[in-house]
Each structure stands twice: as structure tokens, then as C-alpha cells.
Amino acid sequence: MMNAMQMPMNTNAMMPMMGMPMMMATMECEMLADGMMCKMKPAMGMEMAMFRNSAEMMAMMMNCGMPMMMHCGNMMMMGMSQSAMAMMPMMGMMNMPMMMGMNMGMPTMKCMMECSMQGDMLMCKMMPMQGMNMEMFKNCCMLMNKMMECGMPMMMSCNGMPMMCCTC
Length: 168
Fold this sequence. Notes:
By secondary structure, this protein is α+β, with helices and mostly antiparallel strands. The chain contains four helices and eight strands, in the order ββαββααββαββ.
């Protein structure tokens, strides 16, 4: 019987794990007709090999159905792969209370996200989920880009594990 101290609690959703090195990346985004395409490159002083490994790990995690959280300023977006969405229609319900604790006002935007390494860049395509307003999705993307232009870093974490910190 495990006592409460040993229970693996998911308290680290907001707290970065100490052991995980954060990748610093620069990011540029452009709006497409059906969503947003983001290109991430390693920031100055980051090794390409390390960035590639991190990016591949991120893509693998998403392929395993883990949600990717993107925080910027007072805003949060959750990206999931198409197969993960098909698999877990109730996952959104499960995640909400934990995530909503900090900012009651802002709902988490959910989007479908595909990531792949192309050359020396990580390409992430985000598209609105079914039942989600494209207009609102675009507004959220534009707000996130504006926040980054204003110097706010965008943190990406996968299932509670911090992965990348992106700036413009």
C-alpha cells in the first residue's frame, strides 16, 4: 500500500521539472487558410543536434497521444494529434479543472496539431478542432503572436513536462 507521499501526483503540470533542460527556440508563425503554421529554429547558443532530439521527442510524445500545452501570457492552447482526439473525446473534460485553476476567465483553446522535423526546423501545423470556430482560433493565434512580439515567451510543455521556450 503506497502512502500519500509516494503517490505519483500530477502536481507538475504548472511546475517545470528540474532535471529537464529547456530548449530555447525562435518561432515564426504564418496564418494559412485552414490553420496556422509555426516554424521553430534553435535559438542562439543552442546545439542543432540537441534541438533536433528535443523536437523529435516532442513529435513522438504527440504521436503517443499526449497533449501539448502552449502557454503565453494569460493564454493557453492545447494541441493534440488527430488520432489522440479521435481516441479521447472525454479527455477535454478530464483536463479542464486542473488547468483552469490559474486563470478562470480564459478557456483553454484546443487545436489539432501536427509536428514534424523538416531540415533544421520543427514545423508545427495547428488547426481548429471540430466544432471550434475558425475565426476565434485565428484570433487566438494572432493574440499569441502579438504577445510574443511584445516579448512574452511562449512555453510549450507536453503532458506537464516543459519542452521548449519560444520567442520571436
